[in-house]
Amino acid sequence: MITAHTRKLLTIITETAIEKDLCADLERLGAHGYTITDARGKGNRGVRSASWEQSGNIRVEVVCNEETAKTIALEVKEKYYANYAMILFVADVEVLRPAKF
Amino acid sequence: MNTLDPVILFFLLGLAAGLLKSELRLPPAIYEFLSVVLLIAIGLKGGVELSKQSFGALAGQIGLVLLLGFTLPLLAFPVLRWVGKLPRADAASIAAHYGSVSVATYAAASAWMTARGISYEEYMPLFVVLLEVPAIIVGIMLARGVSRDTRWGKLGHEIFLGKGIVLLAGGLIIGWVAGPVSIAPVGELFFGLFKGVLALFLLEMGLIAAAQAGNLRRHGLFLGAFAVGMPLVSACIGIGLGALMGLTPGGVAVLATLAASASYIAVPAAMRIAVPEANPALSLAAALGVTFPFNVLVGIPLYHRLAEALL
After folding, report:
1. Which residues in chain A are contacts of B211 at CB distance < 8 A?
2. Which helix (H) or strand (E) holds B99?
3. Distance between terminal CA atoms of chain B?
């Protein structure tokens, strides 16, 4: 039987424009890795259709421990919420190799 | 003289499809590819022409064009700030958009001139590159003042290594190094297919412009009026400057079009990072929703007529 370990999955959906800055922040704040996918959708800043440069969204996923998730969430909220289209949420996930995250 | 070019009809098709909420949507990767081909094609063409020029003769023109790039946002800013009563960041950001240039508008102008057999200085893509950057710097300083927390190193990277500048300047250099003869083998893609690529690109631009309609309605009359008035003023300055530089009437009209055009690639990307509190919906609604269609449909023929009348 393999033991599963609980970690946090932090998901950020935001503008493609800040991808570089955001990834630098994630690494600085202790994320061991992240996954980015292109995304589109609609929110209170209107439709983000991803049909051209300025309307693209990204979905960034980070699996990490609870403390790192909290640090990232707080700092990212502070830095980006006011001026950028962004949502962020955290969920519990089970991983098989806890040392990796 | 006003038979519409097919490329313009493609733009109108995109505009109509967008306004009627059609399903039509080019995959983002295709749009990306088309813009890459256009940027390189324009750069190459300019570079080949540049290889026939002496740099001594161009130095004066380069100086004047840079001056134009620094001046236009300084003219736009007070109007936006005090007539339009916009917040400082928004006024500065929009001013930067209008001081910089739109490569698609340049492409439309060059297609319009070529279709009518009007000659112009074909090394003008050099001016496109030169005009991209100064307005961004002025815009950031207008928003921030000469503040120490602006990270110019990082911004410089963003500005000079953005897609637009890298491909345009890269194309210029390749064209300039290769010269007219050895460029021929790649010419079939970049020059032979230029009109077709431009037609598809403008189709997408029509869709994007139509998507700005909602924002434009929300932000009202002043922005719409500015988005038509500013290009007219800038075009007149461009005409004056072109005459001073001794360009052909076609060249004067192209320079006027460059002055009148508003950026929607390099500037929004830089402003989003450097002046995040500026609302991008405002500048894009003006630049894409009004100024781009205005220049392509009305501006280019008008600026050419003005240039001919005055010279």
Report:
1. 47, 49, 51, 55
2. helix B88-99
3. 19
Which of A18, A50, A83 shows the shortest C-beta gap to B28?
A50
How confident is the model over B76-86, as pLDDT tens digits? Answer: 999 999 999 99
The whole-angstrom separation of Cα B106 and Cα B131 is: 12
Say yes or no: ipTM exceeds 0.90: no
Contact B272 A50 (CB under 8 A): no
Q: Does A27 touch chain B (CB under 8 A)?
A: no
Cβ(B78)–Cβ(B230) below 8 Å: no
pLDDT reported for residue B158: 81
Q: Which backbone phi and psi does A5 adopt, to 5 degrees?
A: -120, 140
Query: What is the spatial distance between Cα B180 and Cα B47, in angstroms, rounded to a whole number?
Result: 9
* Dist CA B218 CA A16 (whole Å): 24
Report the percent of chain A where pLDDT is more than 70.
99
Q: Does the beta-carbon distance from A51 to B214 stay under 8 Å?
A: no
Cβ contacts of A46 on chain B, cutoff 8 Å: 214-215, 281
**Which pLDDT score is estimated for B147?**
66
Q: Do B214 and A18 touch (CB under 8 A)?
A: no
| Beta carbons of B1 and B301 less than 8 angstroms apart | yes
| Cα–Cα dist B62/B48, whole Å | 17
Nearest CA in chain A to B33: A52
What 3-state DSSP class applies to B145? coil
Chain A neighbours among B 247-306 (CB < 8 Å)?
264-265, 268-269, 272-273, 276-277, 280-281, 284
Between strands A5-15 and A57-64, the pairing is antiparallel
Q: Is the pLDDT of residue B69 over 70?
A: yes
The whole-model pTM stands at 0.90
Name the pairing type of β-strands A5-15 and A86-95: antiparallel
Residue B25 sits at φ, ψ, to 5 deg, of -160, 120
Q: For residue B284, which residues of chain A lie inside 8 Å, CB to CB?
A: 54
pLDDT tens readout for residues B263-300: 988 899 899 988 999 999 899 999 999 999 999 999 99
A71 HSE (CA, 13 A, CB side): 13
Residue of A nearest to B201 (CA): A52
